[in-house]
Design a protein that fits this description.
7-stranded mixed β-sheet; mainly beta; 4-stranded antiparallel β-sheet; 116 residues
Amino acid sequence: QVQLVESGGGLVQAGGSLRLSCAASGATFSAIDWYRQAPGSQRELVAGITSGGTINYADSVKGRFTISRDDAENAVQLHRVYLQMNSLKPEDTAVYFCHARATNFWGQGTQVTVSS
């Protein structure tokens, strides 16, 4: 059974930091993305990482967010992916979702709220 379980969301003041975690199981994951969806907005890509180490970021988070994987895991597939979010802004408030690119499978999401 494929599972993507996000954790680490919460309430933080502007300028603060949070670290999200995505635990992936039940399949081979070659690429995992973080998306977010704010109220009344479309879901947008935040960052992605492949098992080969290719990384991409949305322009809005470059320099503030860092996506990484658990280096203790076999590099052939991804098991845990993190999103370190620094210098958070109120506009980063959203539900953040983990997404398995090859299977188009989504996690349940974790709420991030940044207060001004």
